[in-house]
Amino acid sequence: MAWRIGQDGPNSRSTAFDPSHTIHDAFFGMVSDDCDSAARPAILCGDRVISYADLDAGSNRLARYLIGKGVGAGSLVGLFLHRSPEAVLAMLGILKAGAAFLPLDPAYPADHLGFIAQDARPAAVASSAELALAHGPDRPWTAPTILLDAEAGAIAQESSAPLPGGGASDDLAYVMYTSGTTGRPKGVMVPHRGVVRLARNDFVDLGPGDVVLQLAPLSFDASTFEIWGALLNGAALAVVSSPRPSFEEIGEAIVRHGVTTAWLTASLFHAMVDRHIDSLRPLRQLIAGGDVLSPGHVRRALDGLPGCRLINGYGPTENTTFTCCYAIPRDAPADAPVPIGPPIAHTKVYVLDEALRPVAGGEIGELVAAGDGVALGYLNRPELTAEKFLPDTFGGSPGRLMYRTGDLVRQRADGVVEFLGRSDRQVKINGKRVELDEVEAALRRLPEVADAAAILRAHGSGQRQIVAYVASRVSPPADASALRGRLREVAPEHMIPALFVILDALPLTPNGKIDRDALPVPPAWRGVDGEPAQASSEVEAKLAAIWRRLLKVPYVGLDANFFDLGGSSLDLMALHEEIRAQFDDVPMTALFEHTTIRSLAARLETRDAGKLSIADIQDRKQRQNEALRRIWRRRTMSSL
What's the superkingdom here (predicted)? Predict the structure, then answer.
């Protein structure tokens, strides 16, 4: 039978949380119990099936190879790989070598990657020939690069026998960079115990009979739950390798691999409920979070997925992905905010006032997290660590820390926590944390920008988007598309504003500060950006109608950029679906190449690709490669 956490039975010891275990200790328990355990599928990806025994043996070989390259205890190894079975094997091999891994997202611009590499100074970087060689000699890191595919023969010569035990649960497992208020990201140092505590928990029900969807980017901490929640409980991990899967591809992966458990960002959850709720029917449990859930979408999900347990998941990277979780009851009202729930097992939460004193029950305060999930602090940031990570004076073990989240909450008498907002300018976009101060700082570093402001605005049906207001330093002022392109060169995609509004000057308060309340509604949202579409073909007319409906604007110009009108990556997924229904199927990459109605219509009207010249084909290939990189930068799950 499929084993479940919390059951009394023969495997209960191996699936219980042990605060002394490292990640690889807990994984070893999944392959050492008996032959049947080792033969179970660990990773599913397309037609590939990798067993627990194969994953164990392969990671042992890689660990020995890394040790031979000088990697060991205290080392940090970069992981410059897309979501894939190889990435999971590399993580496990790095940990078995006694080192910690550092996700380096190939979608990030070189400037951003260069800062992370300079700050973290990895001892080596694991990658593939295709990804590493794409940067040529100008790689963002100076550390030796280990090409897992090109060096596969040498790695295979290493012994697959278990390595000697070593390491402690408080050792560093990985460093994950998040948005920072100073204009540069900061690296969160997560220990082994935090990950084991996350995986060996009771907010979800996981065991050998389950399959967990792996959809999050490796640089997004949702992947921590997906990967280790599966592998430390004997479940299978279904990896979606497509860099930018469509709604249909997500649904196909769920059905093909028999997925029982998935984690979706709030925005993707809302979109799937609106457009593809049937794709979620096979799920036994669905966690949604990373931002506030819409009560209406929750109600529709509860009604439409009677066999699925719906859970609201909340937590910062600094407390290892999840702090509180709320199993939403079937009779939840359709118009009430969804609580974030009580703290998960091996976790404590305190609601404190500005003086860090507990508030009375039901009063508003800052949520402070404690317990086994709290990170070790920020890499190379002792001042910020001292500010955010404080000694737990409310009952924690000696030396343990508690983390100030900055989230305003109230705790009910039954222990359930209700999220009320932020105490600063941090926001969540598609599940990823963004500091608006960092967006402004990145804009101000552009030579053509005199000053900038970034705020969060609700658009259309309530979708929240970052809007940037820019005072130009040059004449004529840079247009929105140019600024978007320039910002993409220095900032990751989740930091790129949905809209850029160019102003002669930013409005100021009497004391000379930016008056954010006086910033105007974006012209594109009022339908006054550009001229109405004068369609010259039926395809253009149909596309204009689709754009107006998706973007909720009165009209669009034939040469208006989809993203400059406020289109998000989720909107593009919806556009792809509409095009498939009304026209021929086109790859998602084509939509990133052709971002205006005129250009996209011409692409759809082109039927005979055989008439393309060699130069045209080479040019298209180059544009498709660039589109692929843009897709990775704009992905939702960032989630996805």
Answer: Bacteria
- Whether residue 184 contacts residue 601, with contact meaning beta carbons closer than 8 Å, is answered with no
Distance between CA atoms of residues 575 and 586, nearest Å: 11
The DSSP call for residue 342 is S
Counting residues of the chain whose pLDDT is more than 90, the rounded percentage is 51
Query: Which residues of the chain are in CATH 3.30.300.30 domains?
Result: 429-521
pLDDT higher at 33 or 612: 33
How far CA 180 is from CA of 423, 570, 593, in Å, comes to: 15, 25, 31
CATH 1.10.1200.10 in the chain: give the residue spans. Answer: 538-634
At the second CATH level, the architecture of 245-424 is 3-Layer(aba) Sandwich (3.40)
Q: Are strands 41-45 and 48-51 parallel, antiparallel or unpaired?
A: antiparallel
Q: Within a 10 A sphere around the Cβ of 503, how many other Cβ atoms?
A: 16
In this predicted model, what pLDDT tens digit does every residue of 393-431 receive, in sequence order? 997 677 889 999 999 999 999 999 999 988 778 887 777
User: Quick check: helix, strand or coil at residue 289?
Assistant: strand
3-state SS, 440-467, equals: HHHHHCCCCEEEEEEEEEEECCCEEEEE
Q: What is the DSSP string of 323-382?
A: SEEEE--TT--TTSPPP-BSBPTTEEEEEE-TTS-BPPTT-EEEEEEEETT---EETT-H
Distance CA 257, CA 236 (A): 9
Q: Give the single-character DSSP code of 9.
A: S
Burial label, 34 (beta-carbon count in 10 A; 0-12, 13-18, 19+): exposed
CA distance 53 to 514: 59
CA dist 139 and 372 (Å) reads 37
Give tens-digit pLDDT for 187-214: 999 999 999 999 999 999 999 999 999 9
> Which CATH architecture fits 1-240?
3-Layer(aba) Sandwich (3.40)
Burial class (CB in 10 A: 0-12, 13-18, 19+), 361: exposed
Q: Specify whether the CB–CB gap between 449 and 470 falls below 8 A.
A: yes
Report the topology of domain 538-634.
1.10.1200
With 0-12 / 13-18 / 19 or more C-beta atoms within 10 angstroms meaning exposed / middle / buried, residue 556 is buried
Q: What angle do CA 547, 562, 620 make, to 5 degrees?
A: 115
Two structure tokens written together for 455: 């705020």
> CATH 3.40.50.12780 residue ranges in the chain?
1-240, 245-424
- Please tell me the CATH code under which domain 429-521 is placed: 3.30.300.30
pLDDT tens digits, one per residue of 538-556: 888 889 888 888 887 777 8
**Residue 199 · residue 233 · CB < 8 Å:** yes
Over range 371-386, report the average pLDDT. 96
Picking from 380, 400, 351, 434, the residue whose alpha carbon sits closest to that of residue 389 is 400
Give the span between the Cα atoms of 307 and 523, in whole angstroms: 45
